[in-house]
């Protein structure tokens, strides 16, 4: 194989106000051969996206290339004149951004957007481009390839949109495909679907790819060669096999340690404390909630149906499920941000008003909500000392020096330097902001904290740091946590109990070690087997399993009757599962599974060899 | 975690290398004006100082008829009175002196009127965004009614009905321009109201005043300040056009708008008399826009830097 792309001692820098350079990328060199997938790994801030953009001779405003070369077929692209660079971007290198939802124009049809670049650059005529797009839709296993181009972006799912972006990039047959964290924002199940399609299409098209991510487990599935970056420097590079199985550099080892383990019973620290009082801290009884006007006790759009959850004192309850299953809605109902339509929420045995406006200051203080995005949860115009200090003053009446001392205490508790009190949120990194976000909730001295996907927006190292902080806080403060996440391994390592939500219903709940051990609800099983393992060949193996074939092909659908998981379930019983609400089994005390199959039937399926059943492969390619 | 500098490898006691979390963004830069912005600041500062001390340093009184002739060219001198830097106007008055006197009228009235417009518009606009529901509905419909009337017609109507005095001019301009400020403030307010930090303050049980002044207003301040500059320009032009029609500042008091109108006939004689006050209006309004552009470009630049 010849060298397609050579990145030779690439340097990129920003400048301070006085003109002194701040190096961002400090002399990075690696090569990409034709048809090879090279992965750039590193945490946020390591310069991986900046390098990936340099392959298109582009850098963000304020940055410059002081030295080094990026050669395509031996020709430096950085020193080309702008017109040639434009041709380069249209014909030779294609870029896939992280968020497909933000990349597509909602007002233009998919087909038009997918073919636009190729037609604009004159590589293909509109007809050829349309044909090529249909081929690609087929290769990417998108539903209804012939008519897909006429749809609008909001009419397809997130995973499909991500694949469409790949089609957009591949239309003009680029030599190099740059993928910038294409699966980071996706659910585990969607991630598999997208990875599988990417891998297939890259092999079929034979184009080289530069895959930028922080997730080693994903890289193990797709890359041939790995480049490990830290602070703008290459720490280690080599074939995937060597980096994954035999990492040399300490930083690579550090990254390996942050990879999420496969969720299984006994993985976590939870589930051992039984020293609490019996009264649950928070109890949710027969709760139904949703959006829109409430008619006869049920909202126009029902998101949650008949939820019963108990959260014991100083316990951590993990809530998992894919996006759209109602996890955040559950937390918002408990916090009173969204009043429930039916049912009740009890705090220490006392009924809470459904709407937070009617709750007393003390009740508000005791239930604190921690937002997912620290960026929008912290007021950019307030100092950290005000953000953390306000709840201290508001709920606990501390002022002046007392307040300052308490802010310093809280900063120390979340392992931030005390000097940060005088900074604004924009002067902090993502992980640091998330710590401030936690400190603000802790400042109220709550009984329970509702953490909504607090680690989802962070990369693996930062998020594992935040998780260990949360473990520490649980042990030191005795606060109960509701921990919402779509990431089963994070929840498994941290929670005492797990609630599995699917399409607004609890399908399984119980102590962590029982939920993560057989017998599983088929949905729990799907979630567990979707978590990527850091093992080469894992993706292919997993796709062989039949529950994957069905489970991955379809998305979450909220149904009014029967079991909501019916259309994705490998052991669904026609005529029963789609019409009647499943009974609740209790295989162990306090462990509930909601399924029509008996525990024996569920166990039997788990013991059977996981082969693709005939007929199931087709499920993915249905009309809608 | 304790090391926040860009160098990230720190040695621990065990001699092992620890990798700290990398910062996402470099520390924020302080707002610094470019050279165009600095020019803007100098010009605006000049006119504001002139508004204060102008009449004291002006060579003549605004109403003094001193020239030998009307429409004398710049740099001409009269025998007994002295030197006319910018010449004389149609009534043989010194133009430079009248521009200095007029600064107080034009700049002063428009700044006061714009401030008043902002006070009314921002309070009502953000209040509507925060309260929502009926409050928002009522305020918005009243505002729509005011907006639907042509500004100059509404201004003429009020001035004709109530007479032309400085407080009435200020009040008229303030009410007319408060309605556009209301719309902008409400739009920004609504945008900010859906942010998590506002919801978090509401969930804490904060009062509406805390939410308006501590959560919403500081975040709307930058775009509103940008708009303030533009709005000030509109008010200057509004007062000038009322004066141009003869309903604004009444003679013999000088203001830049009426000076343009009164001296228009001078153009037929090749006199520059109407050009000077026009230049004064232009320099003031352009200078404000230079500052505004600079501020908004800088805050946009910060956004760009955050994304690196």
Mean pLDDT of chain B: 80
Largest sheet of chain A, described in full?
Answer: 8 strands, mixed
Q: What's the CATH class label of the largest domain in chain A? A: Alpha Beta
Helical segment count of chain A: 24
Q: Order of strands across the biggest sheet of chain B?
A: 1-2
**CATH architecture level-2 label of chain B:** Orthogonal Bundle
Strand portion of chain A: 15-25%
Question: Can you describe this structure in just a few lines?
Answer:
Chain A has 624 residues and is α/β, with parallel strands linked by helices.
Account of the 3D structure:
- The complex is a heterodimer of chains A (624) and B (308).
- Chain A is of the alpha/beta class and 624 residues long.
- Chain A folds into three domains: 3-257, P-loop containing nucleotide triphosphate hydrolases (Rossmann fold); 310-481, Rossmann fold (3-Layer(aba) Sandwich), CATH 3.40.50; 522-621, no CATH class.
- Chain A contains 24 helices and 22 strands.
- In chain A, strands 16-17-18-13-19-20-22-21 form an eight-stranded mixed sheet, sandwiched between helices. In chain A, strands 6-7-8-3-9-10 form a six-stranded mixed sheet, sandwiched between helices.
- In chain A, helix 7 (158-170) packs parallel to helix 8, helix 15 packs parallel to helix 17 and helix 17 (430-443) runs parallel beside helix 18 (460-477).
- The two termini of chain A are 41 Å apart.
- The model of chain A is unreliable at 609-624 (pLDDT under 50).
- With 308 residues, chain B is mainly alpha-helical.
- Chain B has one domain (33-307): MetI-like fold (Orthogonal Bundle), CATH 1.10.3720.
- Chain B has nine helices and four strands; from the N terminus they run ββαββαααααααα.
- Chain B has helices spanning 35-57, 95-131, 133-148, 151-162, 166-193, 196-204, 208-244, 256-262, 275-307; strands at 9-11, 17-19, 76-78, 82-84.
- Chain B has a two-stranded antiparallel sheet. In chain B, strands 3-4 form a two-stranded antiparallel ribbon.
- In chain B, helix 1 packs across helix 2 (95-131).
- The longest helix of chain B is centred in the middle third of the chain and has 37 residues, at 95-131.
- The two termini of chain B are 21 Å apart.
- Chains A and B meet through helix 11, helix 15, helix 17 and helix 18 of A and helix 6, helix 7 and helix 9 of B.
